[in-house]
Amino acid sequence: MIRSGISAIRRLSSAPGNSSFFFRQLFDHESSTYTYLLGDLVSKECILIDPVLEQVERDKQAVHQTGLNLKFAINTHVHADHITGTGLLKKSTNCKSIISKYSGAKADIYVEDGDNIEFGQFALTVRPTPGHTNGCVTYVLESQKCAFTGDALLIRGCGRTDFQEGDAATLYDSVHAQIFSLPDDFTLYPAHDYKGWTATSVREEKLYNPRLSKSKEQFVEIMKNLNLAYPKKIDVAVPANRVCGIQD
Ligand SMILES: N[C@@H](CCC(=O)N[C@@H](CSS)C(=O)NCC(=O)O)C(=O)O
After folding, report:
1. How far, in Å, is the centroid of ligand 1 from the Cα of 177?
2. 32 C-alpha vs ligand 1 centroid, how far in Å?
């Protein structure tokens, strides 16, 4: 597995027969955050999902290398562990920022259930997946049979529910209704991984997720007892992310 800086390049192997689809999964070691670069090599339009402030130069280089133009910098939610790179990207490119209407954060464009975010011939569809935060969404790329789950679903885990607007029962319902309802062979890409995993599938998580494969009552009990330390940057990250990150 390769996952450091700009060398963390992983083509979507399951891309069904569309050679103009471009995909890179990029990793920030400090926050264990995945950023995704998705592009259309014909129109040259591309988007970034969950950029990290400290990795903005890397991300711009990745966009530049491939001759793409950044159309949107998109967040899956208001992150608590790192500052988004969206504000800085907006300053130095022509991109527009996107976040859920229910996030409580500033952005150029607000999205909600069923909205499509188009880049060239491709489009992400928005599915609301609250529970980690109110404004958490999953972006589904139907044509490539994959989805970007943010912190709602992590590989063999899920986002914690003990701060921001966290609610375990809501998260359970979100994942079951909006993610586990996708076809079993859809690839799922999370916003974080702490164990070295890069991607999973709907089928795998339905079978093997140690939290979400349980009953709702068991899940709520598990989430009450995670006993995780608060993210180190929470006090700076949440206020910064509510205003789209650093812009000055
Ligand atoms: N140690 C990290 C924060 C780790 C953490 O709390 N991760 C969150 C997602 S980022 S808010 C989470 O939901 N984790 C779930 C889990 O089961 O690990 C830091 O200090 O930044």
Report:
1. 23
2. 9
How is the chain split into domains, by residue range? Answer: 5-227
| Chain centre to alpha carbon of residue 220 | 23
- Dist. CA 225–CA 170, nearest whole Å: 17
Residue 4: CB atoms within 10 Å: 10
Ligand 1 atom index nearest CA of 228: 6
Query: Which tokens belong to 176?
Result: 């079951």
| This prediction's pTM | 0.94
Which CATH architecture describes the domain 5-227?
4-Layer Sandwich (3.60)
C-alpha to C-alpha distances, 52 to 36, 67, 127, 131, 223, nearest whole angstrom: 11, 21, 22, 22, 27
Residues 153 and 196: their CA atoms lie apart, in Å, by 16
How high is the pLDDT of residue 17?
57
